[in-house]
Each structure stands twice: as C-alpha cells, then as structure tokens.
C-alpha cells in the first residue's frame, strides 16, 4: 500500500509520452470489449484505409518504379500537399478527430503543459489513419532511393516522418482552436459566413483551373511544384527529391522549415488546448433580459421556436432549438451544411456544365449549358446531406436523454419535435441555395424546381434518418471539442452516414426522374410536389420510427451514454 501511495504521489515530471500511449491503448481495448459491431466497423475501416494507403504508395512510388525523375517533384509536392490539406480540412467537415483521451479529464492533474501536449500528441499518432498515411508516403522513399541512392532514401525517411508529424499536429491544432472559437457565437457566425463564401468560390476557381490546365503543358507545373516545395505543405515531402536531383543544400533547409512549422503548430495547439480544458472562452456579454410579457414559460422559448405552441411539443422544439444554437458540436454540423450546401451545387452546375469535349480541341470551356436534371440531382444531394446531420441526434444528448425516458416522451412526438427544431435552422439555408444557384446559372425560372427538389429530398432524408438515429446511435465523448469522436466512432459515423445517404438518395430519386421526363411541365409542378412529398415522407417516417423508438428507449439510452 505504501508503494502504491508513493507511486500515486509521484511528481508529474515522471509522466512521459509512453504513459499516454499505454493509456490510450487500454481505453481503446475497453471500448471494444463486448462491442462486436465496433470491432467489425474498426476492421472494415482499417481494411479500407490500407486499401487507400496501397493506392497512395503506388502513386508516390510511380516515378521511382518507372525510373523517371521528370514528375518526381510534382508528385511529391502536390501529393504531400494534398495529404496535409486533407488532415487540415477533413476532420472539420466530416471525420472528426479521435479523442479517446479527452484532454479535459487531465485538467485537474498537476501535469505541465509540455508533458500534456507531448503525451496527447504521441497518443494521437497511435491510429489507423496515421499508419495508412505512413504506408502511402513510404512510396516517396522508394522513389528517392531509386533516383538518388541510399542518401536520398534516408532523407526521404526523415522527410516522411516529419511530414506525418506535421499532418497530425495540423489536424489537432486546427480542430482544437476551432472548437475553442465556436464557443463564441459571434465568432461562430463570422466563421460560418467566411467558410460559405470560400466554398462558393471553389466552383469558379475550378473552372479557371481546368481552363488553365487545358492550355498548359504538364511540365510547366514544375515551377508551381517548386514553390509548393518551399512551403510547409510540400517541404518535408520534396527534400529527398532535391537530394536525388543534385540540390543537396535544399534538403536541410526544407527540413528546418518543416520543424519550424511543426513547432508553431504544437505551440498553437498547446494554447488552444489549455483554454479548451479550462473553458476560458466566453460567449460574450450576457444578453439583455427580455420583458415579462407572455410569462415565465415564454421566456424559455428562443426566437427560432417562437412559432411553437406551448405544450409538450413546443417544449421539445424549444429545447432542441436552444441546443442547436448553443452546443458547439451541433453548430459545427450546421456550418458543414452551410459550406457544402453551396460548394456542391456550384461545383456540379457551374463547373460541370461549363465544359464540353471537342474532338479536335479536347476540353473546351464555356461550351456546355445548364441542365434541369443536373440541378435537381445536385439539390437532392444537398437535401440528403442536410438530413443526415441528424443521423446521431440522440448521441448529441448522451446521458441527458434519460430525462426523456423518465418522462415517457412518445417516440413520434420526440422525432417530430427534433425534426421541426432542426428544420428551423436548415430550411433558411436551403432556401438560400434554391434561390442563389439558379440565379447564378442565369435561370431564375428554375428556382421553384430547385426548391421543390430540396424539399422532397430533405423530407425523404428525415424519414430515413428517423430509423437510422434510433437503430444506429453511438455515444460521443464528453468534451468541449465538437469534432471529437471515441475510438472507432469515426468508422461508425462514416458507415451510418453512407447508409443513410444511399437510402435517402433512393427516396429522392423521383424528383430527378420527373425532371428528366416531364420537361417544362416539371418547372410548375416541382415546388408543390416537392413540399407535399417531403412533408409527407417526414411525417410518415416519424410515425413509423417513433414506434421503434418507444420500444428501444432503454437500449438507446444505454448506447448513447458515454462509457467512462
């Protein structure tokens, strides 16, 4: 007992990164214990990740296997840059980050910031995505070794490891900082606007880029690759290629650039991590107290739920509206809808319709025309994407869902209230998309068709999501980071989202078929048909899924309650 107490009271300086790694492995093992479906999803995700890794390995190794160094620099610079960008952006918009070790649980322990950051960073390296990237980037070692011998190969090994550390540090720093900022509603609103504007520019930039590629020889991109190679995005990946091509002096400089960028990212992460743990960010000054008109009950209803009647349904709607506005995890999903809702239609309709294939000149810009079928298809995708945000709506509640179980809230009422509250924020976004895209295409007469397609696909998606959220719920970690997921939950999220998206897309196919077969008549029928179809599907889905929810309330509560 004395020995145990002595070890428990050991100073924090004894704690090292290996303790965090061992702790993560033990927590992961406990999370998988008795959860066969989690193990199965983890294996499927691992196989898929290593399939992508093998493809990446062949891509990076292609110049070396062909013994041709003409494209080695471009493959290293652009391929490595895409890896870093992927680790920066994908956790924000889709996958999230593995928070098996929640940083907030270390807040009360006497751990120095350096120990905490180094330990969490080491634990973050123990994951399937990291191993997959390592396998893929190993193709650069093959290329460098074939083209430049053992010296270039050794530099490639150092560069690949440094690039991998840079990817993980960038992902953690950005998600942690963004999570901290999202607690401020003013910053959240500004970020949503900026991200939506940036996404809206992707379509025009795609057109410009494709037109430039049509007129540009691939070999001319070497200059661009050289510039990218001197940035943190490409420096670690191109250092070995410089050695292989005789520019030995450039390798240590690029590795130094990588080290400085890595240090800056870790410093940034440590600052945002500490504020996230302590809850230092505030939501700004407290809002002014509203008058007592309407009584105390009316005070509990936010503006977004002001239309709801004062009863059980209205109370549930008010609760959900308030949570969607204040919960950082839910706000992150709303931002994703705003970004992708503009990005996808712009890319498909503007970029896809703006090019035709000419037998003599190849890809010709400006030769295509907008298509009602293409517009309807893109609107269906946006509507489905908006609805699948609710695929784990009960997981957002966690153990708080116990209050609904105790109160014996009917399943149908529960789902309808959740759909209504979510729609109070999503429908205005979809309305903006329905108006903006046809106007940009120069077809204002297609606004009603776009709105009808969105309404039909969104309502059909809600009907499918009602079942998915009840049958496929999973717990989320209790953390302030809205992008955090438990180990293996990233695979579950992707799998359930894919299933929900496929089923919802099938349910939204009728509007695409109608746009293809009915022609101009569909321009008049799309809006009323879409509204009736979407509303009817959502009500029917809540009716049927509500019965399933009534039977599975205890199991659902046990599933979404975080495991400590």
Task: Describe the secondary-structure layout.
Elements lengths: L1 H7 L8 H16 L3 H30 L6 H22 L3 E2 L14 H12 L3 H55 L2 H16 L1 H14 L5 H9 L5 H10 L5 H29 L16 H5 L12 H15 L1 H26 L1 E4 L3 E4 L6 H16 L5 H5 L4 H5 L4 H31 L5 H25 L12 E2 L3 H30 L1 H41 L4
Description:
With 564 residues, this protein is mainly α. 74% of the residues lie in helices and 2% in strands. The strands form two sheets. The chain has a two-stranded parallel ribbon with strand order 1-4. The chain has a two-stranded antiparallel ribbon with strand order 2-3. The two termini are 25 Å apart.
Biggest beta-sheet profile = 2 strands, parallel
Termini separation comes to 25 Å
Q: Based on the structure, what is the oligomeric state of the protein chains? A: single chain
**Record field, number of beta strands:** 4
Which outline best applies?
globular
What are the secondary-structure elements, in order, as H or E? HHHHEHHHHHHHHHHEEHHHHHEHH
Strand order of the largest sheet: 1-4
Q: Rg, please?
A: 26 Å
Mean pLDDT: 75
SS summary, helix count? 21
Uncertain regions spanning at least 5 consecutive residues: 1-12, 280-296, 353-368
Helix content: over 70%
What structural category arises from helix and sheet content? mainly alpha
Percent of residues in beta strands?
under 5%
